[in-house]
Amino acid sequence: MQDVLAAADTRRGFIGKAALLGGATLAAGGVGAFAEAARAQSAPASDLAILNFALKLEYLEAEFYDRARSGVFGRLNAGVQRFAEVLYAHEQAHVDTLLATIPALGGTPIKKPALKFPKLQQRSFVLTAIQLEQVGVGAYGGAFPALKLKAVKEAALAIHSVEARHAAYARLVAGTLPANVAFFAPLTTDQVLKRAAPFFA
Amino acid sequence: MTEIFTHKGIEVETNAPIASLSEELGTSRDLFLKRAAIFGGGVVAAASFGMAMPGNAHASKASDVAILNFALTLEYLEATFYAIAVDKGKFSPRVERLARVIRDHEITHVKALVATIPSLGGKPVKKPKFNFPPALFANETTFLQTAMALEDTGVGAYNGAGPALTLKPVKEAAASIVAVEAMHASWVRGVAGTAPAPATFDDPLTTQQVLAAAGPFFA
Predict the structure, then answer these.
(1) Structure pTM?
(2) How does residue A7 score in pLDDT terms, banded at 50, 70 and 90?
């Protein structure tokens, strides 16, 4: 039952992404926000810098989960494997969406950075996922107040809360309290870079 | 429930005090209040300049206050829902714990908003009257399904309102709350046995959509 629901839910995300990237009929909501952004003539340079910073983190997350689901961190049990597959699909969709959106707003997407990951096994993979997702939540939360274009704000928020869901999902998988604070503090760019630094080669 | 949600160690780790986890992860539960206090000082300073304060600053504050009062209405709804669940529900320890923790978060959100709105020159809305049929708390399934709907709606509401916010500290505070609402949504979904993160994007909801979803719970 859970598998069926998970598959159906993930597919919804993919259909939305495909619609956006194909430039076909555009769905409403978060994806619609990106579409709106893509129709705008150009975004302020500061918005583009933030989107590229987000892209850098999304590249990191996507690669991390791609390695996990491919067995780089060893054999995963069924629940953890599913977690890795779902998060890979989401993060790769975020990468693809940012890659399509940044040029549409007049910017140039950064190239995928060189990445490095420590030796991990199932348990340490999940704990590292918690840290990465929480950096992602803090990064989007911290960047949001500086965004200028309405459509970019909508899109950033639509991703921000998905990263928060991922963080809670990872905590649930790890067996720790999924929501452990009443307020989740935003991070500054420097804080994000410091926490993510070990993963950039 | 599947194996991932009954992972070894869940009892040990979930019993860790919230404060210590908070320290461990470098987050602050009273961030909102701190920011509100800082911002309140800023408002007082600006007001002391009297006519020098630009007219659009007043308009910004008023529109942000309206959004915060809408958020407060939803936080009252959530806090009340979980408070009833804790009082009346006959749930397993796992679901009971979820209800207690989320209730405490929602009450904290209510208090933070009630403290912040006056600092922006606004008046917090009174707690509305709610209508939660006892059947919602009769078993874990109906409770979790309702909680899921409320949390997903909360996420959509903040995501929908966020872009209209004008003041930086209010934006920061809203982001720090919506992240937690999303964590609640993910948690409830996981415990209910459905996908914690069901989509690539969390669609923003309009005020009308939020009212349509939450409307049945207002008396």
Answers:
(1) 0.81
(2) very low
Per the DSSP assignment, residues forming a β-bridge with A200 are: A115
Q: What is the pLDDT of residues A139-176, one digit of tens each?
A: 999 999 999 999 999 999 999 999 999 999 999 999 99
The answer to whether the CB atoms of B190 and A172 lie below 8 A apart is: yes
How many residues does the structure list for chain A?
Answer: 201
ipTM: 0.85
Q: Are A84 and A76 in contact (CB under 8 A)?
A: yes
B111 contact A CB<8A: no
Q: Tokens representing A97?
A: 């969406």
Distance from CA of B22 to the nearest CA of A (A): 6
Instruction: Please tell me the distance from the alpha carbon of residue B213 to that of residue B217, in angstroms, as a whole number.
Output: 9
Q: Which of B28, B109, B183 sits opposite A167 (nearest CB)?
A: B183
Q: Which amino acid is at B219?
A: A
Q: Which of B105, B198, B204 sits opposite A30 (nearest CB)?
A: B204
Nearest to B183 among A34, A157, A164 (CB): A164
Q: Which two tokens stand for residue A182?
A: 């009443």
Measured distance CA(A120)–CA(A137) in Å, rounded: 22
